[in-house]
Specification:
The strands form two sheets. The chain has a seven-stranded mixed beta sheet with strand order 2-3-1-4-7-6-5. It has helices spanning 13-26, 51-54, 82-88, 112-128, 184-194, 197-203, 219-226, 241-244, 276-288, 306-321; strands spanning 3-7, 32-35, 41-45, 65-74, 97-101, 142-149, 152-158, 209-213, 230-234, 249-252, 265-270, 292-300, 325-330, 338-345. The protein folds into two domains: 3-168, 2-Layer Sandwich (VC0802-like), CATH 3.30.2130; 184-345, 3-Layer(aba) Sandwich (Rossmann fold), CATH 3.40.50. It has ten helices and 14 strands. It is elongated. By secondary structure, the protein is of the alpha/beta class.
Amino acid sequence: MDGLLCYCRQGFEPELAAELTERAAQAGIAGYARASRNDGYAVFASDDARIASALRWRELVFARQKLALIAELRGLDPKDRIAPMLEAMRGRGRFGDAWVEHPDSDAAKPLAGLARSFGNALRPALRKAGLLTEKENPKLPRLHVTFVDGDHAFLAVADPADSAPWPLGIPRLKLLPDAPSRSALKLEEAFLVLLDAREREALLKPGMAAADLGAAPGGWTWVLTRHGIRVSSIDNGPLRQHVLDTGLVTHLREDGFHWQPPRPLDWMVCDMVEQPRRVAERMAAWFREGWCRHAVFNLKLPMKKRWDETRLCLDLFAQKAGKPLTARAKQLYHDREEITVFATPRQ
């Protein structure tokens, strides 16, 4: 069975299905998407074996995780779910790890106990059948068993270089007691998901200068200061005092949509609540005018036609920026009705 299994935020299955369908068509790959509202996943069925390599995880906006399908198993006998799985994996070679999961949805969360216990039984059986290495090997493909019901599961494979490295595609981040707001987790997750390890090391250095547009109460500013970055925090609202006390923050009570820096900055971040097209155009102006080298910003999505609006805003940003940029966008775990974009000069 060729095709993809992708996880997403509950309620955004139609957006993920529309994205997979459009991106596959652009790659010249025939197929169709299957998704139901609130399931937490979508399937793109295709007979074209190129599908997994044509749609890259980093390039998908609404997919938390991207997996290549092996099989969909229905009517599993609770007394022996393992045998049909081993049969479906015959001739697949060895896996470097095996994860047993469930979608991040209200309906599937009760399956967490089954996933844990089944994983403990499955791994020894896989090793006995020669399908799983004795120790975790991150260089080999990773097996995913995704239960969507007690008798219904997908078998899929993750390429470690082209998939999320976290179970369910969700990084485990903890909100620290001194974080000014929960929005701090959005920027932390953005740096983890949208930048690779090399980029984080090169682009987040002490002594860099940044602007935080719409900064109050200071969650994103606080994250930047934890990297030793000096921040101009732009907002008419107040910042938390301990953020100002870092000595790295200058609070300017101005409108983030009109303020511009007196000199070029390394970073600009923006989490302002505004129409997404207006944000996209303003973010493009920052690159066009050379006011920043790198940026992370959020685009708040409408209630309807959210994939269409996403595509339109990303295209608008690219057109108006006036220079070649690499832009990556994701609906992060800590996002809600929005997506987060990282932009940097194209190498």
